[in-house]
Amino acid sequence: MATQEPDDKLISTEVSADETVRNERPDETVLAAKDLDVYYGEDRAIDDVSIEIPENKVTALIGPSGCGKSTFLRCINRMNDQIDVCRVDGDVVFKGKNVYDGDVDPVALRRKIGMVFQKPNPFPKSIRENVTYGLEVQGKPATEGDVERALRGAALYEEVHDKLDTSGLDLSGGQQQRLCIARAIAPDPEVILMDEPTSALDPVAASKIEDLIDTLVEEYTVIIVTHNMQQAARISDKTAVFLTGGELVEFDDTATIFENPADSRVEDYITGKFG
Amino acid sequence: MPRENYQKRLDGLRRDVVVMGEFVRERYDTAIEAAETGDDDLAREVIEGDHEINDRYLELEDECTELLALQQPVAGDLRLVTASFKISTDLERVGDLATNLAGYGGPDGGFHPAVDFRNLAVDAGDMVADAVAAYEMGDPEACRTVAARDDDLDERCRRASEAVVRDLLEADRARDARNGTAEGKPDRLAAALDDVSRSLLAIRDVERVGDHAVNIAARALYMVENDDELIY
């Protein structure tokens, strides 16, 4: 893992307006879990997971239901903080800083590590307000340019530019999910977490999201949980396979996972022999 | 086991490739017999029956395409499907070469005396059969053994070709020494040229059968170990 200075932006609620310079660092680790265990009460959901997520790549997390992949995703930006019985041991290091350190502000963290959920969940507000929300909670006035940039980044601008003041809920399911992506990228995050972002969409809308992910990764690091293994194979650079018990069984280039996995349990899972 | 129907189709694909291999081997052996004996009926059986091999190939191609399109195989399953597709192509080509050999026998059968045709042809056929068996059993060492045997076959084919050409040149020199007496016997000359041509073509095709056996072994090795060392 490349050594990085801790990211002070996680500590301060002030976010610099300076754009992060995203030069080409294809193999640099942006985020790493070290000896991570997660418990819900007495039940262990994540079992001693260590993994290094490369920057500006798509990393897919796959595995059967209940294997802990969504739990792991939610650990990354501390969404699990909201679950009382959830306990996290180990480190999640984002740009050199353990996100579970006491001085990390979870709200600031989530601006740097945004999230898109399974079901599109736009706010019952206008399209414009959905996009500007993330900036305004930081006390930053959002400009028309900010709105256009985020909507273009989510491949939605051309479809909605003449109706920015209509409700986000009036959009189709696929458009709503892209609006949620626009909302996530408006604060200019480093990492976007996606928890089954296309499972509620029809194939055409899902393919637009897949195309969008391919574009997003030029600027952001994407970590996606998916039950659709063909989707993981299509869109990701790296794939992590979790199996029951929260064990990370294998993590490698996606082509390797789907052509010649090292672990026979992974082979059995991806070929459908598992279970 | 989940995806039971899918697993049955994969097993069926493997079985059908093996059956095609056995069918091709039978036709190839018949072609050897036809070439050696000049038996027109046997030759016709091989040549006119080639469409049966082509039909089996097309059926396997359809099955591989459908499995890829509908089942999206991955990992070992994907390698099985892609290897089976490539192997069926090689088997179809061996069938084509069998039709060539069946037609090389000439009116009385047999080849130039310098060519041990039967041994060469049978050894090449054995390589094909052993490569298909390696595919069936998923035996990587058997794959490598088939590939190693090809060097010996190639060398024997090269020596056989050289012997035929050398004999032709020596006959030519002898004719010159006899002051062109052969010119008075054009039938013998034409027969000698025909014998040489058929022999050289047969040697070339047997050598190609060996190459297809190596291709089959290479794909089988890839299927078993994801190792492309024999693929070129």
From TrEMBL, chain A:
<dbReference type="GO" id="GO:0035435">
    <property type="term" value="P:phosphate ion transmembrane transport"/>
</dbReference>
<feature type="domain" description="ABC transporter">
    <location>
        <begin position="31"/>
        <end position="270"/>
    </location>
</feature>
<keyword id="KW-0472">Membrane</keyword>
<keyword id="KW-0813">Transport</keyword>
<keyword id="KW-0547">Nucleotide-binding</keyword>
<dbReference type="InterPro" id="IPR003593">
    <property type="entry name" value="AAA+_ATPase"/>
</dbReference>
<dbReference type="InterPro" id="IPR005670">
    <property type="entry name" value="PstB-like"/>
</dbReference>
<keyword id="KW-0067">ATP-binding</keyword>
<dbReference type="GO" id="GO:0016020">
    <property type="term" value="C:membrane"/>
</dbReference>
<keyword id="KW-1003">Cell membrane</keyword>
<protein>
    <submittedName>
        <fullName>Phosphate transport system ATP-binding protein</fullName>
    </submittedName>
</protein>
<dbReference type="GO" id="GO:0016887">
    <property type="term" value="F:ATP hydrolysis activity"/>
</dbReference>
<dbReference type="GO" id="GO:0005524">
    <property type="term" value="F:ATP binding"/>
</dbReference>
<feature type="region of interest" description="Disordered">
    <location>
        <begin position="1"/>
        <end position="25"/>
    </location>
</feature>
<dbReference type="Pfam" id="PF00005">
    <property type="entry name" value="ABC_tran"/>
</dbReference>
<dbReference type="GO" id="GO:0005315">
    <property type="term" value="F:phosphate transmembrane transporter activity"/>
</dbReference>
<dbReference type="InterPro" id="IPR003439">
    <property type="entry name" value="ABC_transporter-like_ATP-bd"/>
</dbReference>
<dbReference type="InterPro" id="IPR017871">
    <property type="entry name" value="ABC_transporter-like_CS"/>
</dbReference>
<feature type="compositionally biased region" description="Basic and acidic residues">
    <location>
        <begin position="1"/>
        <end position="11"/>
    </location>
</feature>
<dbReference type="InterPro" id="IPR027417">
    <property type="entry name" value="P-loop_NTPase"/>
</dbReference>
TrEMBL record, chain B:
<dbReference type="Pfam" id="PF01895">
    <property type="entry name" value="PhoU"/>
</dbReference>
<keyword id="KW-0592">Phosphate transport</keyword>
<dbReference type="InterPro" id="IPR038078">
    <property type="entry name" value="PhoU-like_sf"/>
</dbReference>
<dbReference type="InterPro" id="IPR028366">
    <property type="entry name" value="PhoU"/>
</dbReference>
<dbReference type="InterPro" id="IPR026022">
    <property type="entry name" value="PhoU_dom"/>
</dbReference>
<dbReference type="GO" id="GO:0005737">
    <property type="term" value="C:cytoplasm"/>
</dbReference>
<feature type="domain" description="PhoU">
    <location>
        <begin position="20"/>
        <end position="102"/>
    </location>
</feature>
<dbReference type="GO" id="GO:0045936">
    <property type="term" value="P:negative regulation of phosphate metabolic process"/>
</dbReference>
<dbReference type="GO" id="GO:0006817">
    <property type="term" value="P:phosphate ion transport"/>
</dbReference>
<feature type="domain" description="PhoU">
    <location>
        <begin position="119"/>
        <end position="219"/>
    </location>
</feature>
<comment type="function">
    <text>Plays a role in the regulation of phosphate uptake.</text>
</comment>
<keyword id="KW-0963">Cytoplasm</keyword>
<dbReference type="GO" id="GO:0030643">
    <property type="term" value="P:intracellular phosphate ion homeostasis"/>
</dbReference>
<protein>
    <recommendedName>
        <fullName>Phosphate-specific transport system accessory protein PhoU</fullName>
    </recommendedName>
</protein>
<comment type="similarity">
    <text>Belongs to the PhoU family.</text>
</comment>
<comment type="subunit">
    <text>Homodimer.</text>
</comment>
<keyword id="KW-0813">Transport</keyword>
